[in-house]
Amino acid sequence: MIALAGGDAAASAEHPWDKAAAGWNDHTQIIREWLREATRLMLDAAQVSAGARVLDIAAGAGDQTLDIARRVGENGHVLATDISTRILELAQHNAHAAGFSQVATRIADAQSLGLDGANFDAAVSRLGLMFCNQPLAALSSARAALKPGGRFSALVFSGPQSNPCLTIMMRTALKHAGLTPESPFVPGTLMSLGQPGLFAELLRDAGFVDIKVQPIIAPFHLPTSRHYIDFVRNAGSPIMQILAGLTANEQHDAWHDMETQLNAFSSTNEWVGPHELLLGVATAPNTVHA
């Protein structure tokens, strides 16, 4: 597996997610339906409630940011961060359009947020931390931004056995790009935090306490596999990066190959793509961590 551009890129430079920003935003409703229950569990675990100050790390186009804003209300505050300038502009636009003046944005690498001592009540991250080449740095930075006793919760992908759609797409993209697959747990890649026990270990090493990691089943319900392919080819930056060096015809062949394999999850009425996430929950200690 190739190393995909993750959180080590300078926050001020053009980032691969800038290219996927519009596609991600355009597919907000699909993403929302897919992650609705998982997002609720994440926000419940972080105890996001009225009046809270919440940090949203790797916020993307801000779908879950709006959920946070609804929970904290006009007396609360939400800071949405992301390394992609373009996708964060969309998050700010979406918050403004929804009438949420309590939402602010900040361009920041998740691995070095620069928010030590900010005393947030809670911090969350939905499907962002696995793209960090240094996840321990990201988790440590999140803990440092929390008040003592502040809550942290994050969703990441689990391992390849429970995510056959991701596995098919990564394997097929690498084959068509002429690249040799390596471990699915290479830092900065889609399932990098899905290695058994790793997420909890990193949370401990980052100084968190009261740690719990649990699997969340999150199937993707769509009319056909073509709809899933359309989503990924417009919003799935990791796959887009792998195929970027191919000609248009070669890319077409790769996407067609993926779609054919993904048809295995089709039924008479719909396509249901198996996906599994991990929900990591932890608390910032009441004493200063060395």
Descriptive overview:
The two termini are 35 Å apart. With 290 residues, the protein is an alpha/beta fold. The protein has a domain at 16-160 and 182-222 and 274-283: Rossmann fold, CATH 3.40.50.150. Helix 3 links the parallel strand 1 and strand 2. Helix 1 (16-26) crosses helix 8. The longest helix is centred in the first third of the chain and has 18 residues, at 28-45. The chain contains ten helices and nine strands.
Going across the biggest sheet, name each strand in turn: 3-2-1-4-5-9-6
Percentage of residues in DSSP E strands: 15-25%
Give unreliable regions as ranges. Answer: 1-13
The helix tally amounts to 10
End-to-end CA span: 35 Å
Brief summary of the model shown:
This protein has 290 residues and is an alpha/beta fold.
Relevant terms:
single chain, 290 residues, alpha/beta, Rossmann fold, seven-stranded mixed beta sheet, two-stranded antiparallel ribbon, 9 strands, 20% strand, globular, disordered N terminus
